[in-house]
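Thread title: Can someone regenerate the structure for this chain?

I was given the following input by a collaborator and told the matching structure tokens would be attached. They weren't. Posting the sequence so someone can regenerate them.
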Amino acid sequence: MGGKMNSLPFPTSRQLCSDLDTDVQGSDVVLPGQPCLLLNDSIALVAFLEKDLLSEELEKTSSRLWVMSTQSSSNINALHHQKIKGREIIVTEQARLHLIWIHDRVFIKPLPKYLLSRTFWERFLSDESTQLGHRRDSMRRAALGYLRTYRHLIQHESDFTIAKQDHLRLVPQNVTWNDFCQFMSEFHGVADENVSGRYRYGELRLSRLNFYAPILFRKAYYEQIHGQYGDYFGRLYGPILFVFAVVTTVLNSMQVELAVEEVLPARWVALWPVCRWFSTIGLILTALVSVWFLLLWLWLILDEWVFAIRSRLRKRRLGYN
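Best answer:
Regenerated them for you:
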């Protein structure tokens, strides 16, 4: 599927959802998998699809994602290999978190039923469709890239079994392994030029996204995973304690050396200013780190107050009390 992208990536015979095959023009027809969303409600539908398919932050910075990930769309571990790596599979409904991992967790977005329907692609994502306006092409490329990720996530029947577990349900329960294989075979030829920029990469490490967030996204973090102050500060204790342990060991060594100097007939005078300055710098650094911790704690509190006040003012402008 290199070159010009085929706007209909699979034939009707391979579709896994036929909910729209009967009466797609009816006024009460809903989006498959979303019983509260009517297809003829264009405004609500576009808003939902934008949120469900697009990852605006990653798309805007996709040209710089090579800094934090292997530049390959196949850099995706199959579900059984996620288990081998000790990662817990966490279901997310946010496209921006799909294939993001941190420590022993990986976030995966389940396959939405509507993307498995040929009729949906014909009506909303084909070249002839105008219902999504100027967002159609970006949504189509994102949808195509997202579906392609499942080629790598589910490569074996064991992966398929994991995907259908009750606490995950990454794949609709009525889909069989044979049908799934036939459906995914249509995506073998999808090239990177046919998908959105984010899906030219595979898994992304959340710790790196958070680290580069001030530069790439102009905010403090990409996704906050620490809900409590203790959790937030806890991840800083290890590195800081390591630095303090090294400094303390060096200072103790200097103290022993100076004590030995007192009983030796020949003294190493050149060592004295080194010890004096190192101990002074150590004290200054300790004070700075302590102040930094205090300022960081105050900033977290202030940030929460700013967010709360902005939300309050926004609601007042909209007429809420």
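The chain has two domains: 12-216, 229-317.
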